[in-house]
Amino acid sequence: MRVKVATVLLVLILSSTLSTANPGGEGDGIRSRDCAGSCHADSSSNGASTANITIQFQEHVYTGLLTEVTVTISDTETAYTSLIGVTLLINTNGAKDLPAYDGWEIVADHNGGTNNYVESTASSGNMEVSWTLRAPSTGTLTLYAAVQHGSPTGNIAMTGISSPFTIDVEPVPENLPRLETNWEPPATRELGEETTIILETTDVNSYLVEMRIGTQITPLEVTDDEFTIPAASKAGVVEWRAILSGEGPDQTTPWFRLIAEEPSWGVDETSLYMQGFAVLLLFAGMVLILPKSRKEETMKEYEQTSIVREMIDLSTPVASTGPPLPAGGLPPGWTMEQWEYYGHEYVDPNKGGLL
User: Fold this and answer.
1) Same domain, 287 and 346
2) With 70 as the cut, is the pLDDT of residue 12 above it?
């Protein structure tokens, strides 16, 4: 049995080297380019992706305000899973390449988190992912988008990176209608739940709000800086934006993504620890009880064997040590004990027998 277990473990260990790509991905996270690539394979074994990668920004990016960056990926030869990981970076060095190093704040990623690395499924090798960012201080900055995915054969990881995209971050003009600097949009919600959003603005006299599902755009009613996005009946994404008007030039916010999710399962850590402790006690109890039960079973077998032996001994006739009995059996008045000691005298008259 031990040999079989060892053989199975050895096969599993060896089989892990047969494929260097991870078809299931690694999940969204904060990752540099080297980390994101190595999550799918050793960087030395990666292949070059055929993907075309482009980055789009809004026309004006103002310091401290929200903006949208969209990465478009096309002509990608992916593995059968069509899963692609996209990483937003500020250089190609593989070190200190996170957007935060240049002061970018990720307010929301494509999947509702706050990560620079996200995974999504491509359709026919094409995909679009977006981030909502808060711009850093003024200056000229550079962003890159890197991709990693499985190969069509599924045995290596493919990586690629875009050309640099330059962004000029401008100071906020006077009287610019805008959202408050610290205001952030909600990114996720549960199914069947309406979402009421209250906008916090500066230098805004009026605004319109539009909701987009797929390619259909619908205006939403706004009352006292407040509007409601209808509940979702199934998991999916609805987008919305606001067109702000005031003394300065009108401003259009990014398309904010609101993701409807299935309710997540909550885990009570205290209950989890208690259950683990109970299982440990149960296992320890079984270890302590099992030898005792085995011993009792052995004793019972021994006692039963002794009883059987005694029964066999009692039922077995004891061989007589005297002469053979007469044809009629013991003589009248004789006992077996007497026959064993004096029977020879009975059968031999010359020795004082009765015959």
Assistant:
1) no
2) no
